[in-house]
């Protein structure tokens, strides 16, 4: 059973490329994931120099973290995507890659896509921050 989540695009605001301006959650518990990075289980960078490959690893890591919290992509209520670039085509490619991934349903909610100068790990080009609504009692 999923939490009751309502996604709204007010008519007075601009059209979006798939996300919603407002997400309302009627749930008592949330999971706040740490920024998911393009590192494999051994801590090695995946997709050096490749934004899209790194987006794929970030999506895979986020799916694992969501599952550990008892959540799925459709339970995500907020996402922030950080991309090392100031070029719109690069940001758009990362957005498209994430939306095409198994994590894609997470990005129909309130989402922010940011171009940044640098991220924490050497060679890191993409990071993803998610918040999900949880149902049921705490484990």
UniProtKB/TrEMBL annotation:
Q: Does the keyword Cytoplasm apply?
A: no
Question: What is this organism's lineage?
Answer: Bacteria, Bacillati, Actinomycetota, Actinomycetes, Kitasatosporales
Its EC number is 3.5.-.-
Q: What is this protein called?
A: RidA family protein
One GO MF term, please? Answer: hydrolase activity
Q: Name one Pfam family in it.
A: Ribonuc_L-PSP
UniProt keyword list? Hydrolase
Per the record's keyword annotation, is Hydrolase included, yes or no?
Answer: yes
Superkingdom in the source lineage:
Bacteria
Q: Which InterPro entries does UniProt cross-reference here?
A: RutC-like_sf, YjgF/YER057c/UK114
């Amino acid at each position: 059973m999923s939490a009751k989540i309502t996604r709204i695009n007010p008519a007075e605001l601009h059209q979006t490329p798939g996300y919603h301006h407002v997400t309302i959650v009627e749930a008592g518990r949330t999971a706040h994931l740490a920024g998911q990075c393009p590192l494999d289980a051994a801590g090695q960078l995946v997709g050096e120099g490749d934004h899209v490959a790194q987006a794929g690893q970030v999506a895979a890591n986020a799916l694992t973290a969501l599952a550990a919290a008892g959540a799925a992509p459709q339970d995500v209520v907020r996402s922030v995507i950080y991309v090392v670039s100031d070029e719109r085509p690069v940001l758009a490619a990362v957005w498209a890659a994430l939306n095409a991934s198994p994590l894609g349903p997470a990005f129909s909610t309130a989402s922010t896509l940011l171009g940044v100068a640098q991220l924490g790990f050497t060679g890191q080009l993409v990071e993803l921050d998610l918040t999900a609504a949880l149902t049921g009692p705490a484990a």
